[in-house]
Amino acid sequence: MAPKKRIKLLPKIQEGINEESFQQNSFIKRKRLSLLDKTKSDITKDENLNESTDEVQQTDYIEYKDEFDTSDEEVNIVFLLNIQNDIRNTVGNIPMNWYDDYPHIGYDWEGKQILKPHSEDQLDYFLKRMEDPNFWKTVKDKQTGKYVVLSDEDVEIIHRLESSKIPDITFNEYAPWIDWFTNEVMKMPLRKFPEHKRSFLPSRIEAKKVCKMVHALKMGYLKTKKQKAEERLKKREKKFYLLWKTDDTAEEMRRIHDHIPAPKRHLPGHAESYNPPTEYLFNKKELREWEKQAETPWKRKLHFIPQKYSSLLEVPIYTDFLKERFTRCLDLYLCPRARKMRLTIEPEDLLPKLPSPRDLQPFPSVMSVVYKGHTDMIRCMSIDPIGQYLISGSDDMSVKVWEISTGRCMRTIHVGGIVRSIDWCPNKALSLVTVAADRKLLLINPGVGDTLIVKKTDSILRDASEEAFAVSEKVKAVIQWENSSDEKWEDGIRIIINHFKEIKEVTWHGRGDYFATVMTEGGNRSVVIHQVSTRRSQIPFAKPKGLVQCILFHPVRPFLFVATQKNVRIYDLVKQELFKKLLTFAQWISSMAIHPGYYLIHSGDNLIVGTYDRKILWFDLDLSTKPYKTLRLHRNAVRAVAFHKRYPLFASCSDDRSVIISHGMVYNDLLQNPLIVPLKLHRDHEQYNDFAVLNVVFHPTQPWVFSCGADATIRLYS
Amino acid sequence: MVKRHKKYVAGEGARYITRKSALKKLQLNLQDFRDLCIIKGIYPREPKHRRRAQQGKTGIQTLYLKKDIQFLLHEPIIWKLREKKVHLKRIKKAKSVKDYSMAKRYANTIPIINVDHIIKERYPTFVDALRDLDDCLTICFTFASLPRKKIIPSYLIALCRRLTVEFMHAVIAARALRAVFISIKGIYYQVELRGQIITWLVSHNFCFEPQSTAEVDFRTMTTFTEFYTTLLGFVNFRLYHLLNLHYPPQLQGYTSDQLEYELIDDRVSLSDRVAALNISLKVGGTPSEEISEEAELDDFQVDSELADKTRQKYEEIKNLKKLFEGLKVFLNREVPREPLVFILRCFGAEVSWDNTTFPGSTLFTENDESISHQIVDRPHLEKQYISRYYVQPQWVFDSVNARRLLPVEKYFIGVILPPHLSPFSVEYKTHKYIPPEERALKDESFTLKEDLPLNDDFYNIEENIDETEDMIDIDSDENDNEQLENKKLKNMIVKAGQRYIVNKNKERKDLKQMHQLKEKMTVTRSKINFITKNLKKIIKFPEYRFTYYMFINKFKYLYRNMYSGFKTFRLLIFLIKKKNTRLYNYLKKKKKKIIIVKDI
User: Fold this and answer.
1) Which of A226, A244, A307, A633 best probes binding to B when mutated, by most B CB atoms within 10 angstroms?
2) Which of A54, A235, A582, B410 has the greatest CB tally within 10 Å of its CB?
3) Is the residue at B341 inside a domain?
4) What is d(CA B234, CA B245) in angstroms, rounded to the nearest whole number?
């Protein structure tokens, strides 16, 4: 079998020679082999002929089955031809599927078509597999479409290739090395000419270059890699120097416009401590609440859960530390900034700065006397100019005169009507009181005090009664003067003035000669001015201006204050024209009082008005026609207001049972506004049918105040 | 014809610019713009009328002042940023074609942004710089404590470590520390430099926890840190200059070369930091600054309260500076050394530690008899010296905050520590709950209840109490009595079949007790009105109430609002007080029980 092998190997070796002719080592080896093979080729040919005829399928040769070559001999001939010239497919190394659509598979050596072999079906294939013992080493040649049975050598080669060995068994991997080109220097060189002299001498140009480089390195023009790296590092290293020469002088340069410095972080409280007081720790309820707010963390009172550790060693890392630092960074460059004014005041700072009530004494602070005697509500009262007696009018149709200091009722006069208003004549030379009882106005001499004055008053009134003046018809229709009968004279009633409507209010002029009455329902004749000395009455207004509520004389100047439902009008009585109109913005005026002025300065410059809608309005007449101050001290309708004649006090009373005494200072300096301080609240009167305190009056000289109310008592506060 | 009125050419509409148009104007991308804003300290502004500022657009836009953006337009570092961008592109390209040598060359020549002039521009004076040092220090200390990470340039960490140590040295030299506070987040330090109060936070050791990039963007933080390190360096220089010290200081084992570019192991570097802290700096030249610092406050004969107060404060701080002077403190190895060395040295103590565990303990060893205090943070210690106090670290912190050496008894080894209070809470003046411990610190007449240990089951018990008391609301003092009473009654009930020995004495005693209890129960319910002093006065003098009537209406509303706010504050304070007493009572009861059990 040995010669067969050699023949089979031959073409391969020849190929190798062609490819690797430059590899001399292998070339020689193979050459040797091929020479050996060639010599024996003739012998093997003969042997092959004999053997192959019998064992076609078992031959080691490559067999090409052709359907057209039927005889065995021809096969052999073809085979023999094959050795010299390859009759295999000439199409070359192309993808064979190009011929899928053709009947042939390529062209043979002579240009004839190689027809596709009969395609096997599955059954043939199966039978072949079952029957053919060489099936496992049968391979289809794609080029010719024929089956080739591999020889044992081929199989062996494949095995060797699979196990990554050299396919040739005979090849000796460890053959002794033939050193064709040795490192030994030969005495006689293979080259014809000797080496040039240049190759022995060092290069001068290079030396020059090196010299230059050395010089550059020395001089510092050139730097080594290491130096460069160091320099780079040094460059990157930050250098610090004295940037600010002084602490607080700034260099002039362009800076950010309107800089708003970032607010500092809040400093931690006790709760953040590693060992806080126990009350800061969350109990279960608080913890639950904290956890509930996981989605709305900004609502939490604390952004962390307080923890308590018994020693510093136990404190773990704070997991959100870096996150917090990062959010702070974000806040610094991403958060919009704005200046916001923030109040850093206590609520008490908002309170107006007022002097302490203690500094404003004296003012009536305690209730000292209660005057009892009336059986029904007391609507009005008045004090004589000296300040010794008090007269009060009540719904029990009587008028009582009291001695202030003792509280004794001096006299009771039945007037036969509900007393709505009462006023003592301010003239100290007269002992006279006007009492408005329903439609009658009574001039009463109470008969208390100085007997001389009492007698003198009586005589004046008696004298005057004899004179009778002619009165116009217009006035007569409204008012009739009438002397009282003897019976009534005994009671003290001196003159009766009959009005055509119910009298609401009566008020005296400061001199004590004139007095005015108000009939609310009187229309244009609601205000009537009477003169005692001449027993004359006049109706000042031609047109009705609304429901007149109350009326006042200016203490010094000839002015008349008329309060209608909503406004106060001031009339100049001399010029007979409207002087001013004060706008109250109130719903319904109940009463008013005028500032008497101290030492005849600013008298009548300030006016207070009480209204049924709970307000007290302070008017500064020089300042404006609108209220300077609105006080809402009462919880219910204000019934009456009053000024003290000497002290800077004013009082107000209301249906909420209260009497409030306030400090109302008017300054000499015109620039300084009046100072108003509520001082004291008294709530002693009792309430009857929504009425409580109905009138309030100051004592002319003492810091005392009287109040009368629906509980039929008069109370003195001192 | 009348000229047409154009909108938004003047006023608020023309004053602001949106971020998008700012980017367009500056020709920068968002990232560069952000960096520029961080470095230049430009921030968005909140306009007074957003609608007008946004030129009628709804929604919320980020608005910058137009003037700020114009100011940025002339900034030289804009060009540096652009150059850098180009450079990075080049590197990227070189890398993509695998020309690594080229990439390296570009990487070496990347332009460096110098921000020195910006420091001067943003902080015109040194005092301005100090005023803004809070964030700077916190960030620098944070970076100094970070481990080496790819995301953070290591030279920055090294620089932060160096600068922070230098700053701490300056603080030690100036004795400027005023307050310290251990919180769960870290340790707060407060110093006073040139009249400026600076507070910063240093985390407890090893604060680094891996964070997701969505939560923490280290790139932004790095930009901030780069700016802040420059600021801190200049501040350090000026501080050293003021203190007559040489800058940069020669710190042992902490030279800049060694640390700057080859970061050693974190633990080693930490111990080196501490070692460096423990060595005082050499003073160069004549100590002229110190003389001026020590100058006495002249006593002018002005008897005003203010002068007295300032004088008192001055004295207090003068004493505080010498708080630990003359103490020799030895730190046990479990104690965090960096904060303690810093604090103790700030007030003049000598500090040392075991030289076998950590370097830098050159002063004395543990067996030195002259050691006055040893700081220990463990429950017990085998070998103890009689000549020294063994205290827990909190003593140091509390003493600094109290500004005097506190008695050591409460801080002995293994003792339950008193609560650690924040020294900063003073700044909230009114309407704040003041724990009794703080009150005791302030006025000495106030006596404190004893400290009681906190049990683990305190939360559970607390819960039960809460449930029963919720219904009774705030004033339930008598309820406690009731409960007690019920308990007593239960004890006295005789169960059937139980032997009952009639003890007349005992019976009488019981009766008496019961009677007493009953008497207690009859106490009328106290009404709690949350009244300030002023309100009380008002109730006393009803006329004073009139002042409320004298309000202007606007103020009246404000007053009412504020007052209701304070009322809720007061309620909260009351509740927390109540919690305190309840806890105390509970713990006391518990303690009694324990004692009884022990007795048996």
Assistant:
1) A244
2) A582
3) yes
4) 14
CA B400 to chain A, closest CA, distance in angstroms equals 15
* CA-based nearest residue to A62, from A26, A99, A87: A87
B244 plus B365 within the same structural domain: no
Whether residue B331 is found in the same domain as residue B422 = yes
The residue among B203, B122, B200, B196 whose CA lies nearest residue B167 is B200
Q: Tell whether A621 is covered by a domain.
A: no
Q: How many CB atoms lie within 10 A of CB A379?
A: 23
CA-nearest residue to B567 within chain A is A347
Q: Classify A484 as helix, strand or coil.
A: coil
What are the residue ranges of helices labelled H in B383-503? 394-402, 436-442, 458-470, 477-492
- B280 and B335: one domain? no
Same structural domain, B361 and B236: no
The nearest alpha carbon in chain B to A326 belongs to B216
Whether residue A385 lies inside any domain: the answer is yes
Task: Say if residues B45 and B63 touch (Cβ distance below 8 Å).
Answer: yes
The residue written with tokens 């010794």 in the block is: A388
Which residues in chain A are contacts of B112 at CB distance < 8 A?
Answer: 235-236
Q: What domain count does chain A have?
A: 2
The reply to whether B209 and B259 lie within a common domain is yes
Could B422 and A270 be called an inter-chain contact, meaning their C-beta atoms sit closer than 8 Å? yes
Q: How far is CA A97 from CA A104, A106, A109, A144, in A?
A: 12, 11, 21, 12
Residue type, B303: D
B41 pLDDT band, cuts 50/70/90, is very high
B246 in Cβ contact with B240 (< 8 Å): yes
Residue B85 lies in a domain: no
Residue A366 pLDDT > 50? yes
pLDDT at position B430 is: 59
ipTM passes above 0.90: no
Provide the number of structural domains found in chain B: 4
Interface residue of B211, B543, B574, B590 to substitute, partner A, most A CBs within 10 Å: B543
Percent above pLDDT 90 for chain B = 30
Full domain range(s) for residue B396: 320-427
Q: Which residues pair with A561 in a beta bridge?
A: A552, A570
Ramachandran region, residue A577 (left: φ > 0; alpha: ψ -120 to 50; beta: rest): beta
Residue A691 vs residues A369, A639, A653, A680: alpha-carbon distances, Å: 21, 9, 11, 21
Phi, psi of A213 (to 5 degrees): -65, -40
Task: Inspect the interface and report whether the beta carbons of B419 and A632 lie closer than 8 Å.
Answer: no
The size of the A-B interface in CB pairs under 8 A is 306
Banded pLDDT at B337 (limits 50, 70, 90): confident
The residue-averaged pLDDT of B462-491 equals 45
What domain range is A425 assigned to? 374-548
Please tell me whether residues B257 and B175 are part of one structural domain.
Answer: yes
CB B363 within 8 A of CB B344: no
Measured distance CA(B344)–CA(B372) in Å, rounded: 13
Dihedral sign, Cα of residue A496, residue A501, residue A506, residue A512: negative
State the Cα–Cα distance between residues A614 and A296, nearest whole angstrom: 48
Quick one: closest CA in B to A285, which residue? B463
Residue B186 contacts A, CB cutoff 8 Å: yes
Residue B433's identity, in one-letter code, is Y
Whether A402 and A519 map to the same domain: the answer is yes
In a domain? residue A261: no
